[in-house]
């Protein structure tokens, strides 16, 4: 199924992270919901556990922000591309209208 999705959607750099909420109590209080201890510092709790949890949350917020910025850049590129295509098509329409007008003029002179 992944091969049918556009490359923009399949891009691993654009998969946005959901809200991270792993611990049952306050950040850094110890083991999370996954059953693991969360590491030695995390399982010990206290100031170091809270600091580690804060760093982890900061990392994921920064990562999510970078992903959103990347997605915005890609969407802006898509919009610019489509606007360019619109201009190209409008020029082609005008070209064909002029051509049809010349044909009509030429057709009118032949009937005389």
SSE topology string = HHH
Number of strands: 0
Shape: rod-shaped
Total of DSSP H or I helical runs spanning 4+ residues: 3
| Low-confidence residue ranges | none
The proportion of residues in beta strands is: under 5%
Terminus-to-terminus distance: 64 Å
Q: Structural class from helices and strands?
A: mainly alpha
Largest sheet: none
> Quick check: average pLDDT?
78
How much helix is in the residues? Answer: 55-70%
Radius of gyration: 29 Å
Describe the structure.
This protein has a domain at 40-110. The mean pLDDT is 78. The longest helix has 65 residues, at 46-110. It has helices at 7-10, 40-44, 46-110. The N and C termini lie far apart (64 Å). The chain contains three helices and no strands. Keywords: Coiled coil, Mitochondrion, Transit peptide. This is ATP synthase F1 subunit epsilon. Residues 65-99 form a coiled coil.
Short account of what is shown:
Keywords: Coiled coil, Mitochondrion, Transit peptide. The protein has helices at residues 7-10, 40-44, 46-110.
SSE diagram, text form:
Blueprint: H1 7-10, H2 40-44, H3 46-110
Key descriptive features of the protein:
single chain; mainly alpha; coiled coil; transit peptide; ATPase_inhibitor_mt
């Amino acid at each position: 199924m992944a091969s049918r999705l556009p490359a923009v959607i399949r891009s691993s750099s654009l998969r946005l992270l959901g809200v991270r909420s792993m611990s049952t109590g306050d950040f850094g209080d110890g083991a999370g919901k996954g059953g693991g201890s969360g590491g030695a510092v995390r399982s010990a709790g206290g100031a170091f556990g809270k600091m580690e949890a804060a760093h982890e949350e900061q990392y994921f917020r920064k990562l999510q922000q970078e992903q959103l910025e990347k997605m915005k850049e890609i969407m802006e590129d898509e919009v610019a591309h489509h606007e360019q295509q619109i201009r190209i098509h409008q020029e082609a329409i005008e070209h064909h209208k002029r051509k049809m007008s010349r044909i009509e003029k030429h057709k009118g002179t032949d009937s005389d």
